[in-house]
Amino acid sequence: QLQLVESGGGLVQPGGSLRLSCAASGFTLDDYAIGWFRQAPGKEREGVSCIVSRDGSTYYADSVKGRFTMSRDNAKNTVYLQMNSLKPEDTAVYYCAADPLVRRLCLRKWSYVYWGQGTQVTVSS
Predict the structure, then answer these.
(1) Is residue 60 within 8 Å of 51, Cβ to Cβ?
(2) Are 93 and 118 contacting, i.e. CB atoms less than 8 angstroms apart?
(3) In the predicted structure, residue 103 carries a pLDDT above the cut 90
(4) Contact 19, 27 (CB under 8 A)
(5) So what's the pLDDT on residue 1?
(6) Distance of CA 123 to CAs 10, 15, 47, 62, 85, Å?
(7) Taking 90 as the threshold, does the pLDDT of residue 30 lie above it?
(8) What is the DSSP string of the chain?
(9) Residue in 76, 117, 120, 123 with CA at minimum distance from that of residue 96
(10) How far is Cα 75 from Cα 30, in angstroms, rounded to an integer?
């Protein structure tokens, strides 16, 4: 059974950092594109970052570029999102998603068929 489980969310002050994890089971993550998405109350789910299969190319939304870094640990079958310099507007539920085919459209939410349950990130003083 293919499963994605996010963890690492929590409450952090503005300017702080968090590292989110997305642990994959039932499949090898290197065979899939993995995306991070977020959804704040009253807003649509938006792409944050993604990594394509095998070559490891990463992509970021303009709003997080330079602050967030996505990485992959194939030995642990886990992907990470390191979030630095967090802002209140980063507050959202963060989801990871996987798809075996998506490449150049990996920041588009409709490109993915498998989704995790989400983890809450709150940036507030």
Answers:
(1) no
(2) yes
(3) no
(4) no
(5) 85
(6) 8, 9, 18, 19, 10
(7) no
(8) --EEEEE--EEE-TT--EEEEEEEESS-GGGSEEEEEEE-TTS--EEEEEE-TTT--EEE-TTTTTTEEEEEETTTTEEEEEE-S--GGG-EEEEEEEESS-STTTT-GGG-SEE---EEEEE--
(9) 117
(10) 10
What is the rounded average pLDDT for all residues in the chain? 95
The C-alpha atoms of residue 1 and residue 26 are separated, in whole angstroms, by 5
> For residues 67 and 88, what is the distance between their CA atoms, to the nearest angstrom?
14
The pair of three-digit structure tokens given for residue 16, joined into one six-digit string: 């702080």
Pairing of strands 10-12, 119-123: parallel
Give mean pLDDT, residues 56-72: 95
